[in-house]
Batch of 4 targets.
Target 1
Amino acid sequence: MVLGFSVHGISGNGAKAFQCSACGSLVARSDHLISLGGTNRHIFINPGGIECDFQTFISCPGAIAFGETTDEHTWFTGYAWRMAFCRQCGQHLGWYYQGVCRTRRPSEFWGILLSRIVSQSS
C-alpha cells in the first residue's frame, strides 16, 4: 500500500519524550512529530506480513540511519528509505525517509515504531 499525502505541519509542544524501549535513551520529543496525510500515526503491513505501527517525526536526534536507500516497497510515494537504529544501543527503531527529488516536502522524516519507544511526560 502506498500513501499519497500532504504535510500538515509539526505538532506537539515537546512535553513528551520518546525513549528507546531497550536502553532508555532519548530518541525524539513530541514537538518533532509531523503529520503526513493528516496524521502522525501510520499502520502498514510490510511484504513479510508484519504489521508496522509507527509515528512520523521531522527529527530524531537519538536515531541514526543506516544502509543504502531504496524506494522498493516504500509506503510514502516519492520517498526512499533506510533502516533507523537507536544511536545509543543499536536497536532497530524504524525507518528514515528521504525525498527522491529536491522539491519534495518535507525533504526527510523518520518513521519510528511504537513498539520500540516508550513515552515520558515532562
Target 2
Amino acid sequence: MIILNDIGKEYIQGKTNVIVLNKLCLHVNYDENVGIIGPSGSGKSTLLNLIGLLEQPSSGNIKICNVDFNDLKEEEKVIFRKENIGFIFQNNQLLEDFNVEENVALPLLMNGNSFRKSISKANDYLNLLGISDRNKFKPGLLSGGEQQRVAIARALIKNPKILLADEPTGSLDHQNTKIVFNSIRKLSKENKIITVFATHNLNLVKLLDKCFLMEGGKLIDFKNK
C-alpha cells in the first residue's frame, strides 16, 4: 500500500521558489494499477521520484508497505528501493554493452545471484513477454517496442512490490503502445504489484483501476471529473 499525505515539493530556481506539489494526497491499495495524467511540467515525474524514494519531499509524509519513510535513514531507503521498487522509463536505459538477457538479469546479478540462475530467470520473463528469440541481441538491434518489453522484464525480474512507469509508451506507435501497456498491466496483476503510470495517453485511462489528473500540484480524480 502507498500512502502519501500532504506532500509538498519545492525547487529553488535562482531566487525563486517553484512549488511543484502542494499538499498532495494519494492512497493506492495492493495490486492496483493507477494512472497519473497531466501536461509536461505538471509534476508527474516528481511524484514518481518521491514514491520511488529518489527524492525527498519538502513536507508531508510517505508510507509504503507499512514503512514510514520519515523515520528512515538514506541508506535504509536505498536498500528498500533496491529490494521493493521497479522502474520503467520512456528512455528505457538499456545498456548497449550487454545483450538482452544480460540487461534483464542485471538486477539479480547486482544482488549477488549466480549468473546461471539470473540468466535463466531473465529468459523466463523474456518468454512471457514474447521476445525470447531476441535474448542474444544487443538493445540497438531491437525495435522501440521490443526495447520497452526488455525494460519491463528487467523491472519485474526481482518481483518488486511497486512498479513505477514514467511515460513507458510515450515514444511508441499505437500497436506497440498497446502491447507494452497490456504487458505491464497483465504481469502486475498476476504478481499483485502496485503499478503507478505517468502518461499523456488518455486512451489508457479506462483500462486502469484509478486515474488522477495532476493539477495545481494536487491530484484530482479524473474518472469522476
Target 3
Amino acid sequence: MLVGAILFYDSLVAVPFLCPLLWLWHRERREGRRKKEQARLCWMFREWILLLSASLSAGYSVENAFRQSYRELQLMFPKGGPMLNALKDMLARAENNQGAEVMLKEFAAAYPLPEIRSFVDVFCAAKYSGGSLNLVIRSTAAQIAQIMDTRREIETMLSSRAYEQKIMSVMPAAILLYLRVGSAEFLEGLYHCLPGAAVMTVCLIIYLAAYLLGKRLVDIEI
C-alpha cells in the first residue's frame, strides 16, 4: 500500500484509501495457496493409486494393499501431506472393522476432486456388485493416472503464459517507477492536485482491471 500511494499519488494520505487492495492481495494469495495444496494432493493421490494397483498386482488383499501403499507413499513424501493423513486415519479405523468404501466416501467428501470422486465411485460400485475388485482398481488407477499426467502436461505448457502475464502485470508499475526516478518533471502535473489525482485513480483502476483480466485469461480450468 505504501508503494502504491507513493507511485500513484506521491502522498501517504492515500494509504488508508488503498487498504481495500490488501483484501484483494490476501484473496489472491489464499487462492494461490489453495491451488498449490490441491495440486500436491492430486499428485499424492496419483502416486497412491498406482502404488495400490501395484500392491494388488503383487497379490495383496485390499486391506493389506492399503497398508503397503501407505508405507511406500511415506517413503516418497517424507514431509507428509493430506493424502498420508487420510490414509493413516483409514488404517486406524480399519482396525475397528470399518468398511473401506465408507472411509473412501468420507475422504471424497472431504476432498471433492474429480479424480478422487471417480476412483471412489468405481471402487464402491465394484465392492457392492461383487465383481473383480482387484482388476477394476488396477484398470481405474491406470486410467486416472493417465488423465492426471495429461492434465499436468497441459499445465506445464500453460505455465509459460502465466509467467508472461506476471511480467506484463509488473511492467506498468515498473515504467511509472522509472519515470519517477529518472524524469520526475514529466509527472509533476499528476501529483498534488485534484485533476491529477483523478487521472491517477482512473489509471490505477484500469491497471487493476487489466491485472485481474490477464490472470483469468491464463487461469484455465483443465
Target 4
Amino acid sequence: MATELELMVVGRIGAAHGIKGWVKVNSFTDPTENILSYQPWFLCGADGKKEVKITEARMQGKALLVQLDGETDRTRAEARYIGREIAVPANALPELDAGEYYWRDLIGLRVHHQDGRDLGKIASMIETGANDVMVVRGDDQSIDLRERLIPWLPERVVLVVDSSAGFVTVDWDTEF
C-alpha cells in the first residue's frame, strides 16, 4: 500500500507575465530563487495537485518568472495556474542545523511562559523583516483566549523549543 507523499508549500503562482505562458512566482524561500532547487513541484488547488516541470526560469528585478513545461499561452496559463500553491516533497528540503526550525514544525506547538502559564498554541508565523513572529492563539487550556504576537528571538524571548514534547517556552509579558 503506497503512502501519501508529504508535501510542503514553498510558494504560490502569482500573475501571468507576457504572452507566452510565463508566470510570476511568489517564493516563500530565502533567497527567492532557492525554490528552483526543490523538485519536483506540485501545484495544489481545490481540484487537487498536479506535478509540473519547469522549462525555463529567470529573475527579472525582484520577480521570479517561470515557464512550465508545455505552457506557451498566457490565457491558458492564467486559467490553469494563477493562485495555486507550489508544494515540494518535504524530504527535498535541506536538513537544518541545531536550533533551526521550519515553520511547519512550529505550528501547533503549545507556548508556555517561563513561569509555567500556558499562553495557547502557535497558529501561524509571520515574517516581518526584522524577525519572525509567532501568532499564538489562546484556547480552553490557556490563561485566556487572547491572540498574542510574540517575536521569534531565540535566547532573548524564545528560551526553549521542545518539539518532541510539543511546546515552546518564552520570556514574554503576558499582557502583550
